[in-house]
């Protein structure tokens, strides 16, 4: 297998820490875990300003070289095929700029790409101009069960879609961006009808906001909120002509209820008790690095790109702007950081 060289920028949770103590045979949830498991990557270097973190990261993932800053990488242009940006969002813009100076073939960036639509647009355009591929980690774009559901919806296997209800927490741009991207992937283009009152449940600059959306064909989509200080919650219900599909626990499980003749009322139709299905979210990161590997070597189309992430971010920014224009935020609750 042809090896491609990878640099990981930022040595935190999604970079590799979430996988640090998981069993060796568990499906990886992080960049380093997925690169290491794939077999086609040479995990050549990592970078983080925290020296102790770099040392621990290198030891865990058998990485030969660690850097404290991009300045130390200034003579490394052309050395890496893939650069993974796993740093905090506030650093993404500068790290995207510096990543381009390394002349990689692809950059794999955590979402949100940047904090604003204007800045994200700038960097998506810069990557296009440079001819460098930009993959964004909207993870469910690679989840097999999500892809199957998308195909079923588009081919009419569930009949007409009647409505969708999604619930999220921890910021309309951060976790909300994941949910909006998921909804766009499944249902197509969405538009904003109205936005509700902001809930400041985690980020001091990114409230969690309810909203009413609709698809291009007029299907209502309700974006509901939970409070990140209570528990993590990311779930979706789609009501269709032929049943109800529920994504539970972030996609680690699904519940499917299909239409049956009512056992209680003659002539009526109802739903069965449902089938609980093990989700395939855990395989999404492995699928992502496989897609990236094939994109770099063979020109395979990326499932999640800067352009797709920009579409979701535009809608999230519209929701935020509409909400903050309507509601006074002086009484915001303290974020739970």
At a glance:
This protein is of the alpha/beta class.
Describe this structure in words.
By secondary structure, this protein is α/β, with parallel strands linked by helices. It folds into 2 domains: 152 residues, NAD(P)-binding Rossmann-like Domain (Rossmann fold), CATH 3.40.50.720; 154 residues, Dihydrodipicolinate Reductase, domain 2 (2-Layer Sandwich), CATH 3.30.360. Strands 7, 8, 9, 10, 11, 12, 13, 14 and 15 form a 9-stranded mixed β-sheet that branches. The longest helix is centred in the C-terminal third of the chain and has 21 residues. The chain is globular and about 75 Å long. The N and C termini lie far apart (43 Å). The C terminus is likely disordered.
- Name of the CATH superfamily of the largest domain: Dihydrodipicolinate Reductase, domain 2
Q: Looking at CATH, which topology of the largest domain would you report?
A: Dihydrodipicolinate Reductase, domain 2
Order of helices and strands: EHEHEEHEHEHEHEEEEEEEEHH
Estimate what percentage of residues fall within beta strands: 15-25%
State the total count of DSSP E strands.
15
Secondary structural class: alpha/beta
| Helical amount | 25-40%
What oligomerization state is this entry in? single chain
**Uncertain spans:** 333-337
Biggest sheet descriptor: 9 strands, mixed
Mean pLDDT: 95
- Helix segment tally: 8
The general outline is globular
Question: Number of domains in the coordinates?
Answer: 2
> Span between N and C termini?
43 Å
Itemize the secondary structure elements and their pairings.
Elements: E1 4-9, H1 31-38, E2 41-47, H2 51-61, E3 65-67, E4 82-85, H3 89-101, E5 106-109, H4 117-130, E6 133-136, H5 144-154, E7 161-168, H6 171-187, E8 190-195, E9 211-215, E10 220-225, E11 235-240, E12 243-248, E13 253-261, E14 269-271, E15 275-278, H7 284-298, H8 306-326
Parallel strand pairs: 1-2, 1-4, 2-3, 4-5, 5-6, 7-10
Antiparallel strand pairs: 7-11, 8-9, 9-10, 11-12, 12-13, 13-14, 13-15
């Amino acid at each position: 297998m042809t090896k491609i060289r990878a640099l990981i920028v930022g040595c935190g949770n999604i970079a590799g820490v979430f996988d640090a103590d998981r069993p060796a045979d568990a499906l990886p949830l992080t960049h380093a875990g997925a690169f290491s498991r794939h077999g086609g990557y040479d995990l050549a270097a990592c970078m983080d300003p925290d020296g102790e973190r770099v040392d621990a990261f290198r030891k865990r993932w058998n990485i030969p070289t660690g850097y404290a800053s991009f300045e130390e990488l200034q003579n490394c242009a052309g050395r890496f095929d893939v650069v993974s940006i796993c740093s905090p969002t506030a650093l993404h813009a500068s790290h995207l700029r510096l990543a381009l100076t390394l002349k990689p073939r692809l950059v794999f960036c955590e979402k949100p790409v940047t904090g604003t639509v204007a800045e994200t647009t700038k960097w998506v355009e810069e990557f296009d101009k440079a001819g460098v591929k930009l993959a964004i980690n909207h993870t469910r774009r690679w989840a097999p069960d999500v892809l199957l559901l998308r195909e079923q919806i588009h081919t009419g296997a569930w009949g007409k879609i009647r409505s969708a209800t999604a619930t999220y927490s921890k910021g309309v741009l951060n976790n909300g961006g994941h949910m909006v991207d998921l909804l766009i992937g499944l249902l197509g283009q969405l538009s904003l009808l109205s936005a509700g009152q902001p809930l400041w449940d985690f980020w001091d600059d990114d409230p969690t906001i309810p909203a009413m959306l609709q698809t291009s064909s007029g299907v209502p989509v309700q974006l509901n909120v939970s409070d990140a200080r209570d528990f993590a919650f990311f779930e979706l219900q789609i009501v269709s002509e032929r049943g109800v599909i529920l994504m539970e626990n972030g996609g680690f499980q699904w519940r499917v209820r299909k239409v049956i003749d009512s056992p209680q009322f003659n002539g009526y139709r109802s739903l069965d008790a449902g089938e609980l299905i093990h989700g395939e979210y855990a395989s999404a990161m492995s699928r992502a690095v496989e897609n990236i590997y094939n994109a770099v070597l063979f020109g395979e189309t990326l499932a999640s790109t800067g352009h797709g992430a920009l579409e979701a971010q535009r809608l999230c920014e519209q929701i935020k702007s509409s909400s903050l224009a309507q509601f006074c935020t002086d009484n915001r609750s303290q974020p739970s950081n």
